[in-house]
Amino acid sequence: MLMLLFILAITGLPVAAIVIVLMAHTLLRPPRMNDGKAAYVLKRLSPGDLELVFEDAFFDVRDERTGNTIRLTGWWIPHASAGGKCAILVHGYADAKVGAIAWAPTFHSLGWNILAIDLRAHGESEGTQSTAGFFERHDLNQVINQLRVARPRGTRQVVLFGVSLGAAVVAAAAATRDDLAAVILESPFADFITAVKTHAAHMGMPGALFQNLSIRLAERLSGAAFNEIRPIDLIPKIPCPLLVIQSAGDPFLPTGDDERIRRAVASRPESFGPSACRTLPADHAMALAHDPERYRRMLHDFLADAMSNANEVFATDKTDEHG
Q1: What is the pLDDT of residues 10-65, one digit of tens each?
Q2: Residue 244 near residue 185, CB atoms below 8 Å
């Protein structure tokens, strides 16, 4: 890839090479959601603005590529009657925990503890590159493990909730675990590469050749392999109850993605517990805002089934353990 860029540069196409490098850089380094942007766009700076009591949380995770420590930031939002139920909220690309807490009041009203985190290279977390879930899956797994050690009574049953890019991160992490109560994916894409190309087309960016080269360069620079973490491949491997929430006519997803995801959900083994795919008439990641009460009922019903399934599995494990 670097050799190709060198050839482009010396054969009179330096502008093309620069465009490809800039596109790759943009893909790996999303603009940060800072306080000024959050105050202007989201009209909030913390869970306190949603009348939720919270405290700061910090997680030192090992970067799977470099071995260095990356500090991730989060907010812990407790519920007095959670009984060990905890939902971990994971935001989308160029967003942050301040965006993810849009879902916090709903989960809190259902009686859940909540952790909202900033992914690497987002919000207040350290890190310089976003890798579509390739390295973030390891970060999230370490966060879950550390949180359970720090708050064992508040995390007996953990549900992962991810939005857009966060859905890909959640799917990639969940596919490697057998200790989750449930997973919820909001507005997931089927695979990152086709989602990037669709978004680039909407933004009027250079065509397929530039996009393909910039994606390959981004993989080379970051050490990530985007095709190894396609949600379309991971969904059938998540071994716990799963709810996928899609937005009808999502402009950020390629045509046919919704049906591909629906088929992936339908292919899951029954032994994994309840599986559901719901399509709501809303824009990308806006189903909650479109109809808050319907959304709340949907979460309530799914989580009730998921918790029932988790209790049955737990009881079976105990029976097997003690004969």
Answers
A1: 554 677 778 888 889 999 999 999 999 999 999 999 999 999 999 999 999 999 99
A2: yes
d(CA 50, CA 323): 48
Q: Look up residue 91 and give its two tokens.
A: 């935001």
Q: How far apart are CA 139 and CA 273, in angstroms?
A: 26
In the chain, DSSP finds a helix count (H) and a strand count (E) of 13, 8
> Within its chain, how far is the Cα of 67 from the centroid?
23
Give the model confidence (pLDDT) of 179-204 as tens digits.
999 999 999 999 999 998 887 777 66
H-type alpha helices, 90-247: 97-100, 104-109, 136-150, 165-174, 192-202, 208-222, 231-234
Alpha helix positions (H), the chain: 2-10, 14-28, 35-37, 97-100, 104-109, 136-150, 165-174, 192-202, 208-222, 231-234, 257-266, 287-290, 292-322
Alpha-carbon distance of 278 to 82, in angstroms, equals 26
Amino acid at 122: H
Indicate the DSSP class of residue 5. Answer: H
DSSP 167-213: HHHHHHHHTT-S--SEEEEES--S-HHHHHHHHHHHTT---HHHHHH
Alpha carbons 38 and 45: distance in angstroms, whole number:
6
CB 226 within 8 A of CB 134: yes
Q: 250 with 260: CB under 8 angstroms? A: no
How far apart CA 40 and CA 45 sit, in angstroms, is 10
Enumerate the domain spans of the chain.
1-30+202-229, 32-191+230-322
Q: Give the orientation angle of helix 14-28 with respect to helix 2-10, to 10 degrees.
A: 150
73 bridge partner residues: 58
Q: What class, spelled out in words, does domain 32-191+230-322 have in CATH?
A: alpha beta
224 vs 222: CA distance, rounded Å: 5
pTM for this model (two decimals): 0.91
Specify whether the CB–CB gap between 121 and 29 falls below 8 A.
Answer: yes
